[in-house]
Amino acid sequence: MLRSIALLAGLASAAPASADVDYFDTPSGNINCSVGIDRDMSDVICTIFERTPTLPRPGNCRSSGHTVSMTNRGPVTVECDRPGTSYARPSGPGPQVLQYGERWDIGGILCVSSRKGLECRNESGHGFFLSRAKQVVY
Question: What is the pLDDT of residues 50-83, one digit of tens each?
């Protein structure tokens, strides 16, 4: 089980805070996610660095996005690439890694890491799958 789940559970029940945020990377370092937990809502925001350009083009964007987000209820949002932001892949994963086969299950959001990619779902059944070869939003 992911080492940080106990930490997140402790943070979620800690003294009043507007939101608690934690981060994880996939083992390849190609996907970075932040998870925010608040009293009434949680969210996950994931950025994929190297990918085929299959994420849908959000709104009036000129290019497809690298970042998806969702709350514990409701649909996934694909964010516009931000001008001037580098989406170059980091040299490796950060200090907190969701290893292949591990799950991040907190605040109505479940993320599962596998050798095929990262899949996250919310309580409403919406979610996304991210890998270099394929990106799906549902």
Answer: 888 777 777 777 766 789 999 999 999 988 877 7
Nearest to 66 by CA among 77, 76, 80: 80
pLDDT tens per residue, range 119-137? 999 999 999 999 999 999 9
| CB atoms near residue 94 (< 10 Å) | 11
Question: Closest by alpha carbon to 50, among 68, 28, 70, 78?
Answer: 28
Short-list 38, 37, 44, CA closest to 118? 44
| Domains of the chain, residue spans | 4-137
Q: How far apart are CA 62 and CA 46, in angstroms?
A: 20
Q: Read off the amino acid at residue 119.
A: E
The residues pairing with 45 across neighbouring beta strands, listed in sequence order, are 34, 69
Q: Is the pTM of this model over 0.90?
A: no
